[in-house]
Amino acid sequence: MPLRDPTELRPPRARSRWGLVLLALLIAAAAGFGWYWWTARHAPQPVAATAPAVAVQTAPVQQPAEPEAPPPAAAPADSGAPQNPIEEPEAPQPALPALADSDATVGKAVKELLGAQRAEAFLQLDGFVRRVVATVDNLAREQAPARLWPVHPMQGRFTVDEAGGAQQIAAANAMRYDAFVSFAEAVPVEAAARLYTRLYPLFQVAYEELGFPGKYFNDRLVAVIDHLLAAPEPQGPVAVHLVQVAGQVPSLRPWVRYEYADPQLQALSAGQKIMVRVGLKNEQRLKAVLSKVRARVAKARPLGGR
């Protein structure tokens, strides 16, 4: 499925009102996903397809090596009914605006939930619903382009240490993500769940517009959370190497051209690479957040019984 910029999607067609169903856990989930990441260098593949390896980088497109990779998280089976339906709220809810006109309503609600200063510091609220839907869907794929993220990229540059003639992710690199991980942990889960419930029809419209008519966004969210919970947890330093680019013009941003030295790590999806890159302690903290999110949005137990 080709990636789309959420600001370029067409306005939604008139539709009947969906049963109101679960969002700001998604804020927690999305918050836990979208940091300053080495973006992938291939067009995305269908979720169930085998994906080639992806270079870990933040900007210019490079040509990576292509070892065969395991398939990313599969999309929910098309059974005609949602696998993870969410109960409708008991009280009547205010009418929602059309998706194309929803920025003011969604931005106000998110700021009330998180506080205006924190929301603006960490989140990109323009086109927020479409950004969340596109990024959640992309995390189990080869790339999750930064231009679609619902969060601001982290400050600073990716750094490496030299050890025995090889390079590895610097121990200090994980510190760049500490504030964001703390932000994700501080999202009020119950209040976020109620907001997700109220705004869910907008997420569903955005998901269908993205190219999944008749599919249920909450099912996709659960599948992607399970995919991220299954990310490996390297116990020691993670080795990387710099991709060499032929040509006489020197690279002005060499830090965007690092790949994992381990082919299995290099073959991970964009989302699982993020989980590994933030450092083991941050990864485990984020998985704890995601587990709480899953408990509210899913009916079934997570894969592997986590």
- Could you say which overall geometry the principal axes of the C-alpha atoms support? globular
Q: Which strand order do you get reading across the main beta sheet?
A: 1-2-3-4
Largest sheet: 4 strands, antiparallel
- Approximate helicity band: 25-40%
Task: Give the total of beta strands.
Answer: 4
What is the average of the pLDDT values? 74
Strand percent estimate? under 5%
Individual helix count: 10
* Gyration radius over CA: 19 Å
By oligomeric state, this entry counts as: single chain
The rounded distance between the terminal residues' Cα atoms is 29 Å
Low-confidence stretches: 1-73, 249-255
Count of distinct structural domains: 1
